[in-house]
Amino acid sequence: QVQLVESGGGDVQAGDSLSLSCADSGRSFERYAMAWFRQAQGKEREFVAAVTWSGEATYYADAVKGRFIISRDNARNTVYLQMNSLKPEDTAVYYCTAVPQIGQPYWGQGTQVTVSS
To answer: What are the E-state strand segments in 25-110?
Structure first.
């Protein structure tokens, strides 16, 4: 069973940094690719970043490339999203997701990030 809990959201100023964490209380964390998505108010949920099960490969949306870094620690069942040079347009609810090879992804409850100009 996968249970994802995000933390680390908050209110920051443009240009600040923020680090999000997503912990899985299950026992199969290392089997899943992990990703972060975000959803701004009134908009569809969009992809932010992903990391393979081993952590060797990472992928980023163009909007965050060069500013955000995704990483994972399989020993701690945790995936991270380091967000630098934040912009007001990064304001959204951020969700982590565990992506199995087969079946539907698992989602966390989300954490709010608000960036003021």
So the answer is: 33-39, 46-51, 58-60, 68-73, 78-83, 92-99, 106-107
